[in-house]
């Protein structure tokens, strides 16, 4: 609740102000009353109200002077002035000193007060948001460390590190966090403040931590936090909220909230649920076997559509069965998307769809759609090869099966041609012998793997069709004038 001070020398006007609207419903609470500006200034100095509704013409100190002296004290309470028809010059002066507005006493009604309070409520919320943005850097290390609790708890440094970066004044605070998987839809701390999740405290402040279509809102308060609900509630996204906790409990609470959000990511359920703190603690996860991602990329490169689809299903099942953190799932999808787009010679323009997906199933649909587009482009490009149908058939076969044992004899049988005739025809149409062409395709793919992965050299050689690592090195150096090791090192030096 925003604290309000009513300043008016006429008792019946103050009484009318208190009764004309339901203050709490607007998010305000009348915390004090004063009969003149001097009394009001003392209250403002001690209690720091968020809003002062003040008459302009009063004994001892008028409303304009009260506003002026409040600003000289460096206090930022919002002011709304009460004025009569013949006091507009005073009202103008009040606006110059930063008053939020004025209300005519003669036309003062519920609607007029509601309108001005709505305006002030927005100004106060904006002030809290600006303050939180200024303070964000002091808390950033704390949030980033705790984020790593969730993404990769095995790499955490010593436990007390994140708390050292926090201002001493907030280490005794309590806080509530609310995680929402909102995707591309806008979501902020203001949505939490404007909900009926908790009672607002003017001394509290809010921070937001955003990552890949997810936001965690942190509500910090130096005082007790009063929750309005403890059960599930309607919510357009998947969401989890905690009960009030201490700063020291944040690593475990946030980790568990995100893991609970993961459950909704996999099930596709929406709604805002309270955090189940049973068995609360930091838990590791089973990582995705590296060969599964690698096999998708290679199958895509070989244009094996059905195999890509089958492997994608396999990867998605593994991630769901082992409940990998949704952010690692998204990063995996983004990585596959970028590599396959590069293989196809296209731009990876699905990043937003992937990172802002709101469920495991939705993400799979997006990555499958992206890979289908890239594959269609690759197949279309591979069909424009030479002016000879059978040579094109062989080239297409090599591009799909360069990792297999490809020989002139096998290709002659594949297109029902004499070996000698095929050998001469292939060189005439491509400018290379069949084996030279095969080597070039294999080495180009090896260069791609050297650029995009950290796979061992012997494995890259095997993956592109060289059974002997020494032979792989020999052909690679013949075509590039560098060994695979030198080629990979040159890339690192370039970056």
In short:
By secondary structure, the chain is of the alpha/beta class.
Structure description:
The protein folds into 4 domains: 107 residues, Rossmann fold, CATH 3.40.50.2300; 142 residues, no CATH class; 93 residues; 106 residues, Arc Repressor Mutant, subunit A (Orthogonal Bundle). The protein is built from 20 helices and 11 strands. A hairpin with a 2-residue loop joins strand 7 and strand 8. By secondary structure, it is of the alpha/beta class. The model has no long low-confidence stretch (mean pLDDT 86). The strands form 2 sheets. Strands 6, 7, 8, 9, 10 and 11 form a 6-stranded mixed sheet that branches. Strands 2-1-3-4-5 form a 5-stranded parallel sheet, sandwiched between helices. The chain starts with a strand and ends with a helix. 54% of the residues lie in helices and 12% in strands. The chain is elongated and about 115 Å long.
Radius of gyration: 34 Å
Note the main sheet.
6 strands, mixed
Straight-line N-to-C gap: 53 Å
Q: What's the tally of helices? A: 20
What is the molecular shape? elongated
Number of domains: 4
Mean pLDDT: 86
Number of strands: 11
Helical proportion, percent range? 40-55%
Helix and strand composition category: alpha/beta
Beta-strand percent range: 5-15%
Low-confidence stretches: none
Subcellular location: Cytoplasm
InterPro entries: CheY-like_superfamily, Homeodomain-like_sf, HptR, HTH_AraC, HTH_AraC-typ_CS, Sig_transdc_resp-reg_receiver
Domain Response regulatory: 3-120
Domain HTH araC/xylS-type: 392-490
């Amino acid at each position: 609740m925003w604290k309000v001070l009513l300043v008016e020398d006429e008792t019946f006007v103050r009484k009318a102000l208190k009764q004309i609207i339901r203050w709490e419903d607007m998010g305000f609470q009348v915390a004090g009353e004063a009969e003149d500006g001097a009394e009001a200034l003392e209250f403002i100095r001690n209690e720091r109200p968020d809003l002062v509704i003040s008459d302009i013409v009063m004994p001892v100190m008028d409303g304009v002077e009260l506003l002026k002296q409040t600003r000289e004290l460096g206090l930022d309470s919002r002011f709304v002035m009460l004025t009569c028809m013949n006091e507009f010059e005073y009202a103008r002066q009040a606006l110059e000193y930063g008053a939020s507005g004025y209300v005519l006493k003669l036309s003062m009604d519920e609607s007029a007060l509601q309108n001005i309070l709505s305006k002030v409520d927005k100004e106060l919320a904006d002030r809290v948001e600006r303050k939180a943005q200024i303070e964000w850097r002091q808390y950033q290390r704390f949030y980033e460390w705790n984020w790593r609790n969730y993404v990769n708890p095995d790499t955490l440094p010593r436990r007390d590190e994140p708390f050292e970066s926090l201002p001493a004044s907030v280490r005794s605070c309590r806080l509530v966090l609310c995680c929402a998987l909102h995707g591309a839809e806008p979501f902020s701390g203001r949505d939490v403040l404007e909900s009926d999740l908790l009672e607002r405290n003017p001394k509290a402040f809010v921070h937001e931590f955003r990552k890949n279509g997810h936001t965690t809102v942190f509500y910090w308060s130096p005082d007790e936090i009063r929750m309005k609900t403890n059960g599930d509630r309607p919510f357009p996204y998947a969401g989890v909220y905690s009960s009030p906790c201490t700063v020291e409990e944040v690593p475990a609470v946030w980790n568990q909230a995100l893991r609970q959000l993961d459950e909704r990511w996999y099930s596709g359920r929406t709604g805002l649920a309270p955090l189940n703190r049973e068995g609360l603690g930091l838990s590791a996860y089973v990582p995705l076997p590296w060969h599964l991602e690698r096999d998708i990329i290679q199958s895509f490169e070989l244009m094996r559509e059905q195999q890509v689809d089958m492997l994608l299903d396999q990867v998605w099942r593994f991630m769901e069965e082992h409940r990998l953190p949704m952010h690692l799932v998204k990063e995996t999808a983004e990585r596959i998307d970028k590599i396959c787009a590069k293989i196809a010679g296209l731009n990876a323009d699905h990043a937003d769809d992937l990172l802002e997906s709101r469920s495991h199933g939705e993400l799979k649909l997006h990555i499958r759609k992206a890979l289908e587009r890239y594959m269609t482009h690759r197949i279309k490009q591979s069909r424009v090869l030479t002016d000879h149908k059978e040579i094109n058939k062989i080239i297409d076969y090599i591009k799909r099966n360069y990792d297999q044992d490809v020989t002139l004899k096998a290709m002659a049988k594949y297109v029902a041609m004499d070996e000698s005739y095929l050998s001469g025809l292939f060189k005439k149409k491509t400018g290379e012998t069949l084996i030279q062409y095969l080597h070039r395709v294999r080495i180009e793919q090896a260069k791609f793997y050297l650029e995009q992965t950290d796979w061992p050299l012997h494995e890259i050689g095997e993956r592109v069709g060289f059974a002997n690592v020494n032979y792989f090195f020999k052909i690679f150096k013949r075509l590039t004038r560098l060994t695979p090791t030198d080629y990979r090192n040159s890339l690192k030096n370039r970056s």
